[in-house]
Specification:
The complex is a heterodimer of chains A (257) and B (328).
Chain A (H helix, E strand, L loop, with lengths): L2 E11 L2 E12 L3 E5 L6 H9 L6 E6 L2 E2 L5 H7 E2 L13 H6 L3 H4 L6 H13 L15 H14 L4 E5 L7 H16 L3 E5 L3 H7 L2 E6 L2 E6 L1 H4 L2 H8 L1 E8 L2 E9 L2
Parallel strand pairs in A: 3-8, 3-9, 6-7, 7-8
Antiparallel strand pairs in A: 1-2, 1-4, 4-5, 9-10, 11-12
Helix pairs in contact in A: 5-6
Chain B lengths: L5 H21 L16 H36 L11 H14 L9 H21 L5 H24 L4 H11 L8 H19 L2 H6 L3 H7 L4 H23 L5 H9 L11 H21 L8 H24 L1
Classes of the chains: A alpha/beta (257), B mainly alpha (328).
Chain lengths: 257, 328
């Protein structure tokens, strides 16, 4: 089973330390949600894990190989990364955009019928088939978010690292994407997502990693990791957990200290 | 989207190009219909066609291909539909190299020195570009390095004009800076062809990286694109193609900017798919412009660059009106 390991990661932007000697390892076939307050280093961790931002200190290895020593194409075949603030430059159609996801698989040859089939499946899996021929610049935020996830799926990655994949999606699509991620883990893919929505973290993740000031504050099964004590430490809020119709619910009672 | 089959687009551009080649060989102060090209008793006419107009036409195609493909690559790379091949500063450096030979008065005794000076300027420009932008892969530092080169080269050209020993030298420099295809021979074709071919071939290998850059720099890297390598190939490819074009014709603006812009809708906006059509359309536009300046009834032939600039303003006006209509 594929393993992704980060050891003593340190990242600083000038004076500001974003990741402070963080070590964590991930097993495939799990959905891990990374949560934490703004500026806790969630996106930076994800970029470092994806092989897209070499840490100042420490290293990241995937299946025993240092991710920053892997050839770019090899790395891209393993790691799927739908970027958080997608700057799409040209008004290509959605199918073309999703087809770009095949880039690490095809090298310099064109898309074959087999590639087209995989693209079609990716379109269907994220429910964007209906607007596959539309110009991406005319999509709403949620539609674009799903198209970008489809793009990552089309690369058939071993790991999917998604930064805020649920942002801008309505509740229905949030559940759809959550079950899509669940389906990917069933096929042996490891999914790591950053989330702001603690309910969704509780609901969709096998494991929750709470970050604060560049360190791991809690790590474990969702309900244990998102304990009221941890939430107080991480966010400075008082929270309560109570049973809801579809599993436990976190209620933020108020702001404290 | 009004996508049309790629074969049709390329085929259409090729037909247009062939028609323009025929027009370019026929048109000028003396109109020579194609039926008179061969077998005519008149030696003068066949000399006009094969010694004057043929090299000029071939050179027009070479330069057009170089400018068109470079423009498409630069717009794709910078993700800016109004970028042109000149923003890397390599064409200004080539012009500076050429102007330096004119300033030193060396070009009149040895005519090959001017294009050689321009190529040295271009290659020096490429080297400086890569040194200045360093090992980072950021598009922004690359463009900034190009701006520095542009500024230095422009200052150098101005300095040469400022310090020119005679008004005649000033005249010569300005005359050369206004790009034109007039009075070019097989020598210029030999000079430019290999560089434009190599440059264009390098740029053609960038189709996938340019497509991937549609997703931004992080997106392209997540797709396994090596942006540093992309930048090196781009610098050499565009530098050689544009540098060689400037070396033999002077500065011809507008072609590299407008060609990809016009064709973008026909290739569903994919930057990689734009390269080959832009190369062909660049040749079409340069040849069309050159035929027009030759048949205009004026005593002094209009410079091609001036004609291009004259078409440029209304083109951008049309673009502006179109954008405003969309925004309204």
């Amino acid at each position: 089973m594929s393993q992704l390991i980060a050891t003593h990661l340190g990242v600083s932007f000038g004076e500001k330390t974003v990741l402070d000697g963080l070590s964590v390892s991930f097993d495939a076939a799990q959905v891990t949600a990374v949560v934490g307050p703004n500026g806790a280093g969630k996106s930076t961790l994800l970029m470092a894990l994806a092989g897209l931002r070499a840490p100042d200190r420490g290293h990241v290895s995937v299946d025993g190989a240092d991710i920053y020593s892997l050839p770019a194409r090899d790395r891209a075949q393993r790691m799927g990364f739908p970027a958080q603030t997608p700057e799409i430059a040209w008004g290509v159609d959605v199918r073309t955009l999703v087809g770009l996801g095949r880039t690490p698989r095809i090298g310099s040859r064109g898309l074959t019928a087999a590639d087209d089939e995989i693209v079609t499946q990716a379109l269907a899996a994220t429910d964007v088939t209906a607007f596959a021929d539309r110009n991406v610049l005319t999509l709403s935020g949620g539609e674009r978010g799903r198209a970008l996830i489809a793009r990552a799926l089309a690369g058939e990655p071993k790991w999917l690292l998604a930064d805020e994949p649920l942002t801008g999606l309505d509740p229905g699509f949030q559940l759809d994407i959550a079950s899509l991620f669940r389906g990917m883990t069933a096929r042996g893919c490891g999914v790591i997502v950053t989330l702001h929505d603690l309910h969704m973290a509780l609901r969709m993740a096998d494991r929750v990693l709470v970050l604060g000031e560049g360190r791991v504050l809690a790590d474990g099964a969702p309900q244990e990791a998102l304990s009221p004590e941890t939430l107080m430490r991480a966010y400075g809020v008082e929270a309560r957990t109570w049973p809801g119709a579809a599993g436990p619910v976190i209620e933020i009672v108020g702001r404290r200290g | 989207m009004r996508t049309i089959p790629r074969a049709l687009l390329i085929g259409g551009l090729l037909v247009l190009l062939v028609l323009l080649v025929l027009a370019s060989l026929s048109a000028g102060k003396v109109w020579i219909p194609w039926s008179d090209w061969f077998g005519a008793a008149d030696d003068m006419r066949s000399m006009i066609i094969f010694d004057l107009r043929l090299p000029r036409t071939v050179l027009g195609i070479i330069v057009g291909v170089g400018l068109g493909i470079s423009g498409a690559a630069m717009q794709g790379y910078t993700r800016n539909p109004l970028a042109d091949p000149g923003i890397l500063g390599v064409s200004s450096m080539a012009a500076f190299g050429a102007v330096a030979t004119l300033y030193l008065g060396a070009a009149s005794s040895m005519p090959w020195l001017l294009p050689a000076g321009a190529m040295i300027g271009a290659v020096g420009g490429i080297a400086m570009l890569l040194v200045l932008s360093g090992a980072t892969s950021s598009v922004l530092t690359f463009i900034l390095a190009g701006m520095i080169l542009n500024t230095v080269a422009t200052a150098g050209v101005s300095l040469a004009l400022n310090l020119a020993p005679t008004p005649w030298a000033v005249n010569e420099i300005i005359h050369w800076l206004l790009g034109s295809l007039a009075d070019r021979s097989v020598d210029e074709v030999r000079m430019a062809l290999p560089f434009v071919l190599i440059g264009s071939a390098l740029v053609l290998t960038l189709a996938r990286p340019l497509d991937a850059l549609t997703l931004g720099e992080t997106g392209a890297r997540s797709l396994g694109i090596d942006l540093t390598r992309t930048r090196w190939i781009l610098a050499f490819g565009v530098g050689l193609a544009v540098g060689a074009s400037v070396a033999v014709t002077g500065m011809i603006g507008f072609v590299g900017l407008v060609t990809p812009h016009l064709l973008r809708p026909f290739v569903s906006a994919r930057p990689g798919a734009l390269l080959v059509p832009s190369a062909l359309a660049g040749a079409v536009i340069v040849l069309a412009g050159d035929v027009i300046v030759r048949i205009l009834p004026s005593t002094v032939e209009l410079k091609l660059s001036v004609a291009m600039a004259a078409v440029g303003a209304p083109f951008f006006l049309a673009l502006l009106i179109n954008l405003r209509r969309k925004a309204a």
